[in-house]
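To: structure desk
From: M.T.
Subject: fold request, one chain
Message: Could you run this one when you get a chance? Sequence is below, nothing fancy, just the single chain.
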Amino acid sequence: MESSSVLRLGNGLVGTSRQPIADFSKRLHMFSVCIVTYGDYPELISRTLFSLKEHFHGHIKDVRIGLNAVSPETFNVVMKWSGTLHHCPVYVYQEVDNLNVGKYPLMRRMFREEPAVFGDSEFIMWLDDDSYFDGVTDDWWNNVYRELRVHTVVGVRHYIVSRGNQGHGISEQPWYTGKEIPRRHRFEFATGAWWAARTEFIERWDYPFPEVYHNGGDSILGELCRQQGASIGNFVEGAQCHAKCCYKGTTRNNVVHVNVGGREGRRGIGKKTSEEIYPWHFHGEKPQSYEHHNFDLKVYKFDGVHK
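Reply: Done. C-alpha cells follow.
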C-alpha cells in the first residue's frame, strides 16, 4: 500500500547509474510492455493484446496489464489471453473490488509490485488500450531501441500550453533545475497513449508521481525531461497518431497506432473525475484529492512460458 504526499511530484532521489546500453542485436528481454484497460471495452483491449501477440518479439521481457473497473467480458478477454500467450510472463493487476483507481496510480503500482520493472527491464513500453500494433517488424523494434540509445523517452511528440500557476508548482519540485516556465509556455511531451522510456530514468525520478491521477501525467513527464536535460524522440516513422490535431487521413503500415481522445475518457481508458485536481497547477495550499494509492491490489501471474 502506498500513501501520497501533497504537491511534491517525485522524491528527487537519484538512483544508481546503469552501464551503457549494449548493442541491440546481442540482447534479449529488454522491454516490459505495460497496458491499462478500463470499463466495458473488450473489443479495444482485444485489438491491443492480439496485435501484440501477432507482433511479439524476443526482446519483450514481460507484459503487464492493469484493469480499472472492467466488465466481465473485458476481464475474460484479458485472462484468457494472458493464460495462453506462453511467450513471456504476464502479470495482471486489479483493485480487489474492481474499482477504477485511476490510470497513473495503477501504472505506478504496476511498475513497482514485485517483480518490479526496475529489476531487469531496461525499457518500459506503455500503451493505452486504444493503441495497437499493425504490421510491425524486427526493424520496427530495432528502431525503437536505436531511438532509446539517443533519447530518454520516445513517442509521438505533442505540445500543450501552460495553464494557471503550473510554473510556480513546478519550480517547487525537487527535480526543478531552474529552467524558466514563462507565461504561455509550451510543454513538449510524448503523448501518453504510447511511449517507451529508459527504465533507469523512470526509477530515478519516481515516475509516475504519486499525485497524478488520470490527466497530465504525460506532459509532466515531458517537463521533467526538459528540466533534467533528457531528450524526447519523436518516433514519427514508427507511430501514427490519430489525434485530430495531427492525423492526415492516410494510414501507414508497420507502425503502432496511437489513438488520443479528449479529456472525457480517452476512448476506453477512464473518465476524469469531477473532483480531480491537477497538482502542478497550484502554488501554495489548495484543496487536494490524492488519496488514490491506498488500495489493495490483486496480482494474477501467468509464467508458463513455452520455449
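Reply (cont.): The chain has one domain: 28-273+297-302. Let me know if you need anything else for the meeting.
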